[in-house]
Amino acid sequence: MNLRLFNTPHRQIEQFTSQEPGKVKLYTCGPTVYDYLHVGNWAAYVYWDTLVRVLKADGYEVERVMNITDVGHLVSDGDEGEDKLEKGAKREGKTAWDIAKFYGDDFIAGMQHLNLLTPEHVTKATDYIEQQLELIRRLKDKGYTYQIDDGIYFDTSKFPAYANFAGLDLDAQRAGARVAYNDEKRNPSDFALWKFTPADEKRDMEWETPLDLLNNNESQLENPQSKPPTTNHRPPIMGFPGWHLECSAMAMDILGDTLDIHTGGIDHIPVHHTNEIAQSEAVSGKTFSHYWLHNNHLKVDGTKISKSLGNGFTLDDLAQKGFSPLDYRMFVLQGHYMSEGNFTFDNLAAAQNRLAHWRNVAALRHQTHQGLESSDEMDPSPAAIGAIKEALNDNLNTPEALRIVDETFNYVQSHSIQKVNRHTLVELIEAIDELLGLDLLHTTPDISDDQKQLIIERERARDQKNWEKSDKLRDALAKDKIVVRDTQNGTVWEYQ
Ligand code: AMP
Ligand code: ZN
């Protein structure tokens, strides 16, 4: 298949080709695990799961890394403010390690509930401290770093392409730099690779800063020639990695210097991904990733999701209102990953209805006649599967893929059930499951033989115009949440 993707650095849709034929190296920025994920976060992971499914359907072997940020992501998304994990720990009276474990495990469970494929590598930033320090070492050796009072920074002026990825106006940044800007930094866009634990603070997560990464005046304090230290700290200087460094270190350690695709949210473009590119390419001298994909954001009732508004619904919140993770998955797929989404419970209810309808079409496979081959047999699948794949290969056009499924399912339903070819209906459902992950096959079990018998008896009663008996049998089935529908094309059963 011919996959086209919108490539952020070039701002255009481009034909996808991998470095190595048949193989894709993919990195997805994972969540910061200091709280439950909200619907916006989950939308991002549903989109990137769809990307993986499409790549696999196109015959690629995908090696994907997704990190779990369990340290170093500060509340400002920059280099100021508290670490989100340490803040979560204070909020709950636990250690940052406990918080990371609890919300990290909840994330993995949520991925399973949403039927997201497990990446080949799910990596925690705290397991890659050595690799991160090594990256700083290489950057230091090449002259890209400098040390100030609160940490070791990347000098963005030494990486001339810094502004290109996000089209940044660095002069305007400089002119606009005000209060939040640490004036020890050489440039407002410089970012922390490693932050020192403040002298008056004890962090749950901190590591010794290797002496060779520190300025000479820090590492050779016994040397009388050295100037007095510029900081109040004395070795061992404890510290922790910057959020941006984590992703580069994990991606490059596992996948090598150059990735095929890197994904994240649009919020990552101006800072996080710009910084990942700067530090990775400064070290390797190679392109960090050939394709960059970014999902737009989801709003809730037209408003930005924010803690203070209490609109960051979690999967549990949805469950309490009677919506399953797969209902939510359907909701996400109804929008395009590059369009701003709007979450409302009405929209979610519409997605739930659509999924219920699809399940009832999937259940028709239990009601067809196996091996039927007649001249007027109805064969739903080959053209539809091709069209669905084509829509998804067109920059992951999920709304169009869903429209094609609707059209095909309506076509199936407009035929007498006797005429539907079971084998090709099953093939179609399997293909939809593979591409869209809605788990139609497993969520649509056959009814029992006893229930089938009740349906036959009800049809017999209707033939005999015994309406009382037929109504009783209908009620008995309704107790089992099975609805019998008499259509122009005969009687079918559906899940209630
Ligand atoms: P974080 O845990 O803050 O690092 O966010 C995890 C992922 O969710 C990142 O890829 C973000 O880009 C993404 N994200 C955050 N808010 C939203 C939103 N409202 N809609 C879609 N994606 C989001
Ligand atoms: Zn990242």
Seen as an oligomer or otherwise, the chain set is single chain
Write down the overall geometry: elongated
**Sheet with the most strands?**
5 strands, parallel
Please give the count of helices: 16
Bound molecules: adenosine monophosphate, zinc ion
Rounded to the nearest angstrom, the radius of gyration is 28 Å
Show unreliable segments.
220-228
Helix proportion range: 40-55%
Structural class: alpha/beta
Query: Which strand order spans the largest sheet, edge to edge or round the barrel?
Result: 5-4-3-11-12
Beta-strand residue fraction: 15-25%
**Average pLDDT figure:** 92
- Tell how many strands the DSSP assignment holds: 16
Our measurement of the CA-to-CA distance between the termini, rounded to an integer number of angstroms, reads 38 Å
